């Protein structure tokens, strides 16, 4: 079983902010409510793998701030169905970024053409990630609803520590998904830590928190950051 971040306690509120490259990284690390960074490139595509240079800079900065980074591993936008070339690239990126001490985990997700969990691909990715933590990202929301609970069991058996979900594949308000998210959170309790995101912001988080127990929270605007003015 993979390890979760030792500095994060599941019964405390955890805010994970999603950062594109090094933009706003310093502000996010300095924010007292930010518990963890998800590091991505190309957020307009749902997030892809950052360059090694960005990852190294972020790792060094995170170590100084004593906050963990989880790095997205995704070779392209669009589908979550990967061929042999995609997989080889992902494994190489994991091997490279895994050497960075500030990178405490990786965010991955692989599906079959039928939108079921791709067990073979996930086993290879998780074995490469060990002993660092694995998050299965929002590709999970494409899994048919009737299969989601058994998919949580499957991800637990594979060694996934965190599951990131919006509760729906649609780009709808998070409030519309609360009933389904509550069912997922209840089922996942003690198996895998649910991270709820996509539409969670510093403006609505305080209304959402009392409605979902035992989850962590994720978003690009999970906290209010001062404006970043590059030269």
Please write the CATH class name: Alpha Beta
Spatial extent as radius of gyration: 16 Å
Strand-and-helix sequence, N→C?
EHEHEHEHEHEHEHE
- Level-2 CATH architecture: Alpha-Beta Barrel
The domain count comes to 1
Name the strands of the widest sheet in spatial order. 1-2-3-4-5-6-7-8
Organism: Entomospira culicis
Protein name: Copper homeostasis protein cutC homolog
GO molecular function, one term: copper ion binding
Pfam families: CutC
Can you describe this structure in just a few lines?
The chain is α/β, with parallel strands linked by helices and 231 residues long.
What does this structure look like?
The protein has 231 residues and is α/β, with parallel strands linked by helices. It has a single domain (15-219), classed as TIM Barrel, CATH 3.20.20. 31% of the residues lie in helices and 17% in strands. It has 7 helices and 8 strands. It has helices at 25-30, 52-65, 84-97, 119-129, 148-158, 178-188, 205-208; strands spanning 15-20, 34-40, 69-72, 103-108, 133-136, 162-165, 193-196, 216-219. Strands 1-2-3-4-5-6-7-8 form an 8-stranded parallel beta barrel. Helix 3 links the parallel strand 3 (69-72) and strand 4 (103-108). Helix 3 runs parallel beside helix 4. The longest helix is centred in the N-terminal third of the chain and has 14 residues, at 52-65. This is Copper homeostasis protein cutC homolog. Pfam families: CutC. InterPro entries: CutC-like, CutC-like_dom_sf. Belongs to the CutC family. It comes from Entomospira culicis.
